Q: What sequence folds into this?
């Protein structure tokens, strides 16, 4: 047993070492990624409940690494957060999204904000300055926050949200239903929208309970006067259910995967067909 334990320990050590090396590499490469134009934004359309009309898009960052190819944001966002790179990355994302949004009249552009980015003292002024510099109507920009934003310092978060709301921006509570106290947050903080987490839809087909939960969340959101969006909609069955229970917006592979800004231009009919 002793021998086994030692083996496990050394295996663990090698695993840790590799993980650290991977991290270090990501960190070093990420620093230059913005300057080398390796980052790219894709946009996933959000549709009206019937799936016919595009009402908004969500910006999703991609990293086209010269050696490793496309790196998932789930892999590099946490590293950027740990290494103090998230604000620079977040500012780049917001500016880029604003530039694209200028072409797209009448729809919302949603941008994901990391809790660490949100907690920076100059977050509010930076957002307002970027929107101003890029000449984008703030009412068309929606910031997607997760509960993590609020948990650490609720008062500061509330103030920042109020200031940004006063400037015209809107807020969506992302991954709704996955945290502990979403209901409290909904009452206290001025969100405009909740996004039902994908995990509820994933299990909807297998258990009746998830369908009941989704139904309840939609009711709750509507009762509070919020827009309700379901993310990760993959089947026509899910879409029919969501529409039937009164969900306002749907987003997912069933309708469209995240695509380039040029593709969004096409989908919005902004480029002529030849
Ligand atoms: P999220 O904000 O919950 O974004 C939704 C994720 O679900 C995206 O993954 C999207 O591509 C994926 N998705 C959309 N429809 C479907 C579907 O029908 N089925 C399935 N299975 N997946 C679907 P992605 O682009 O890999 O992003 C992962 C996460 O990384 C995001 O989760 C968000 O938390 C974070 N992220 C992405 N871009 C940014 C960014 O610019 N800033 C920050 N701070 N975080 C970002
Ligand atoms: Ca999101
Ligand atoms: Ca989400
Ligand atoms: Ca998520």
A:
């Amino acid at each position: 047993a002793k021998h086994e334990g030692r083996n496990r320990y050394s295996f663990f050590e090698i695993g840790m070492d590799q993980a650290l090396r991977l991290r270090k590499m990501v960190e070093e490469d990420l620093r230059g990624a913005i300057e080398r134009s390796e980052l790219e934004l894709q946009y996933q359309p959000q549709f009206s409940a019937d799936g016919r009309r595009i009402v908004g898009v969500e910006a999703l960052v991609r990293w086209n690494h010269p050696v490793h190819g496309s790196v998932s944001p789930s892999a590099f966002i946490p590293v950027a957060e740990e290494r103090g790179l998230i604000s620079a990355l977040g500012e780049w994302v917001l500016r880029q999204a604003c530039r694209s949004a200028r072409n797209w009249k009448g729809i919302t552009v949603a941008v994901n904000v990391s809790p660490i980015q949100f907690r920076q003292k100059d977050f509010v002024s930076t957002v307002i300055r970027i929107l101003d510099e890029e000449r984008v109507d703030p009412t068309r920009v929606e910031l997607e926050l997760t509960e993590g934003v609020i948990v650490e310092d609720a008062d500061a978060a509330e103030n920042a949200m109020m200031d940004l709301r006063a400037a015209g921006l809107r807020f969506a509570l992302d991954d709704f239903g996955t945290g502990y106290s979403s209901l409290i947050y909904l009452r206290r903080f001025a969100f405009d929208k909740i996004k039902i987490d994908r995990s509820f839809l994933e299990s909807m087909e297998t258990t009746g309970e998830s369908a009941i939960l989704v139904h309840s969340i939609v009711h709750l959101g509507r009762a509070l006067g919020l827009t309700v969006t379901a993310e990760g909609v993959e089947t026509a069955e899910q879409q029919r259910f969501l529409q039937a229970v009164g969900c306002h917006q749907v987003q997912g592979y069933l309708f469209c995967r995240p695509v380039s800004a040029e593709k969004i231009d096409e989908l919005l009919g902004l480029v002529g067909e030849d």
Q: What stands out?
A: Residues 2-33 form the longest helix (32 residues).
